[in-house]
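Researcher: Next entry: HMP-PP phosphatase (Kosakonia quasisacchari).
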Amino acid sequence: MARLAAFDMDGTLLMPDHRLGDRTLATLRRLHEREVTLTFATGRHALEMRRILSAIAMDAFLITGNGTRIHSREGEVLYRQDLNPEVADLVLHSRWETDASVHVFNDSGWLTDKALPETLQAHLSSGFTYQLTDLKRLSAHDVTKICFVGDHDDLCRLRIQLNEALGARTHLCFSAMDCLEILPVGCNKGSALAVLSTTLGYSLQDCMAFGDAMNDREMLESVGKGMIMGNAMPQLRAALPHLPVIGHCRDQAVSHFLTHWLDTPNLPYSPE
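Model: Predicted structure:
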C-alpha cells in the first residue's frame, strides 16, 4: 500500500481544458480517507497552487516550480532552491538565437516582458497571471527558474546554445513540448519528492507518482510505483520504457487507475 502519492498537474491530473474533473476530485478524497498522503508536484507556482487547493478544499503538500519549492499542508516552506545568480544574470542579459518568449519566476510570482494572452489559457480557472516588467532590469538574485516558451524545434536549438553557455551550472528540461525550463543544479521533482518523503518518514518505495513530461522523469523512475500518462511526451515513454502507461488525461485516467488500485488491487490493471 503506497503511503504517499505525487501528482503532476498539467497533462496528468488536469484535463485538456486545465480543470480537475469531478471523478478525479472524488478519487483524491478517497485516497485521503485511506490515509494516503497527497502531494501535487508541478511546474506551477506555489501562489497558484494554494489558490487551487483552497478552491477544491483539499489538504496536500506542494512541490512547485518543478522541485524548487516544497510547502507543507499549512503553507510552511520546507525546502527552497534558487538559480545561481550568475546563471540567472547570464540568461537574462545574453542574446539567444530564438523566437521563444522568456518567463521568470520568483517568490513574488510570474514575470515576463511581453503581453502574451495565449499563455494565460492554462490559468483561467485559478486566475493566476503574469506581471509585465523589464526583465533586463530584474535582479538575478532569488530567481526560482527561467522558462522559454515557443516552437519545439526552436527550443531544441536553444537548448544546445544554453548547454554550451551554462554547462553543468544548471538543469535544463522540457516541462512540455513548447516549454524549456532552466532550473537550479540537482533540482527536479524527484529530488524534491525524496526530501519530502524523508521528512515524512517514508521511503521512495512507499510512493506512487503520475506524470506526462520530461520534468516528471526523475520522479517517476525513483518511486515504488510510477505511472506514465497515455498522452505523455514520446521522449518520456522512450526514456522509461519499463513503466506502465495508463490512459489519457482527457478521460481522467488517474482516477480510473486509482479506483482500480483501491477496489481491486490484486487484479491486473488495463487502461481500457
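Model: Note for the record: The first strand starts at residue 4 and ends at 7.
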